[in-house]
Amino acid sequence: MSERESGSPPTPKKSVAREYLESVVVAVILALFIRTFAVQAFKIPTGSMETNLLIGDHLLVNKLVYSPSLGALESTLLGKKEVQRGHVVVFKFPEDPSRDFIKRVIGLPGDLVECKGGTVYINGQALEEPYIKVKDERPCGPYKVPTNKLFVMGDNRLNSRDSRYGLGFIPYDKVIGRAFVIIWPPSRMGWLRGS
Predict the structure, then answer these.
(1) Strand pairing partners for 59?
(2) Rounded to whole angstroms, how far apart are CA atoms 195 and 191?
(3) Identified catalytic residue from 63, 103, 149, 174
(4) Is 48 a known active-site residue?
């Protein structure tokens, strides 16, 4: 028995234009969800992270990695972890939240950070920094990192506005996420070193 004979109305067929429109709407919603909650693209605006990150490099930032966790399974599945020394993080500039900054985490809450003779010391121990190409001989500190804050520095120590010079300590709630891969230009694509 056909649909007409059974008394049910025929199912209208979607037009090709409507199918494309629905696909685009779903893609936009998915992209907004991912950008808002999971991964965000970021462009390097200054030379403060050279030679590891160059002006104009585009990279991806994992926004979930430091987010609060509902349990061990979620943490494992999403690769969540605590902020660690050496991670490259993107954060809201404390003086102007419309601007994003990128730096490397050097000091964690409770750490005593000091710079002497081109070496960074954490709690009296020299920090190994294979990602640094040119050492900064200027002394700094000592700085005691407060609770729920981070001490950050650029890899280009001679040209970086960071926790030593004007930026201060970065509150955890200003951290957007962890930078993990360069996606543009193609010649520089790859995972971030030392992050």
Answers:
(1) 42, 182
(2) 9
(3) 103
(4) yes
List, for residues 113-153, the tens digit of each pLDDT value. Answer: 999 999 999 999 999 999 998 899 999 989 999 999 999 99
Share of the chain above pLDDT 70, in %: 74
Which one-letter amino acid corresponds to residue 1? M
Residue pair 80/69 in contact (Cβ under 8 Å)? The answer is: yes
> Does position 100 have pLDDT exceeding 70, yes or no?
yes
Domains of the chain as residue ranges with CATH: 39-191 (2.10.109.10)
Q: Is 153 helix (H, G, I), strand (E, B) or coil?
A: strand
DSSP letters for 68-125: --S-HHHHHHHT-----TT-EEEEEETTEEEEEEEEEEEE-TT-EEEEETTEEEETTE
Nearest partner of 145 among 171, 127, 175, judged by Cα: 171
pTM of the model: 0.76
Burial of 22 from C-beta contacts in 10 A (0-12 / 13-18 / 19+): exposed
Q: Kindly state the tokens that stand for 3.
A: 């649909």
User: Which of the following is catalytic: 48, 160, 163, 195?
Assistant: 48
**Backbone φ, ψ for residue 79 (5° rounding):** 65, 35
- DSSP character at residue 70: S
CA 11, CA 186: separation in Å to the nearest integer? 48
Check if the beta carbon of residue 48 is closer than 8 Å to that of residue 57: no
Tokens of 103: 């730096």
Question: Active-site residue 8, yes or no?
Answer: no
